[in-house]
Structures are given as structure tokens and as C-alpha cells.
Design goal:
single chain; mainly alpha; 4 helices; 2 strands; two-stranded antiparallel sheet; about 140 residues
Length: about 140
């Protein structure tokens, strides 16, 4: 367990960030990313403070956290809707592709039958077994 903690310490870097006039010393794998997060939180807290009359930093932090959580939930819902849309689109495209493949098979079968000797067709007059569209691939 001690080795595990030592590995974590080695792979992280110390970073100082300022949020709402307070300095926080953190350890991070990606200090630039932590700086961006801190900047986002600081901006959100300052926006909440500018729109309200409270000077209590804890209250400002909670209101900022609620705003950030609201944005997160809206984005998650948007992603969920997009995943559904992509899934529906894939289903539609797959269905259309199968339909077009069938139509292509029909057209190619008619053209092929016109140029194939009777011995190359089966008893029903169908071309050799297998999808003609697939044979062209």
C-alpha cells in the first residue's frame, strides 16, 4: 500500500490555484487542466457574486456549484438525446442499405439473366446463389 501511495505522489505535480481570492495547493496529474477547472469555478463564483447581494463565500460557492451542476445535467441530457438520435439514424441507415442492396440485387439479377446461358441459372431461372450486390464488393 505504501508503494501505491509513493507511485501516486511521483506521478502528480503540485499546483497552486486561486479561486475567489483564496489560494489552494493541489496535486494533479495535469496541472494545466486543474488551472482551467479552477478558472471556471472562480469565474462562476464571481458571476454569482456579481448577480447577488451576498458576500458570504460559502454561500457563493454553493450557488456556483448549483449552477455548474445544472450545466452538467443539461449537457448530460443533451448527450443522451444525441446518442438516441445517432442510434435511430444508424437503424434507419442500416434498413435503407439493406433495402437498396435488395433493389440492386433485383436489377442486377434481371440484367444478369438476360446475358447468362440457361445452364448458369437454377431450375427456377435464378442466377447463381449469393447476393449479387455482395459479389460486386
Amino acid at each position: 500500500m505504501a508503494e501505491s501511495n509513493l507511485e501516486v505522489r511521483r506521478s502528480t505535480t503540485s499546483v497552486s490555484v486561486d479561486i475567489y481570492d483564496q489560494t489552494y495547493h493541489l496535486r494533479a496529474h495535469d496541472p494545466e487542466y486543474i488551472q482551467k477547472l479552477a478558472e471556471t469555478v472562480d469565474n462562476k463564483m464571481r458571476a454569482v457574486s456579481a448577480n447577488g447581494s451576498t458576500v458570504d463565500s460559502l454561500r457563493v460557492a454553493v450557488l456556483a456549484a448549483l449552477n455548474i451542476a445544472d450545466e452538467l445535467m443539461r449537457l448530460q441530457e443533451h448527450c443522451r438525446l444525441l446518442r438516441g438520435t445517432v442510434s435511430e439514424t444508424n437503424t434507419i441507415l442500416y434498413t435503407r442499405a439493406r433495402s437498396l442492396s435488395g433493389l440492386l440485387d433485383s436489377v442486377l439479377a434481371e440484367e444478369l439473366l438476360a446475358g447468362i446461358p440457361a445452364s448458369a441459372s437454377d431450375a427456377a431461372g435464378n442466377p447463381p446463389v449469393g447476393s449479387l450486390a455482395n459479389q460486386l464488393r
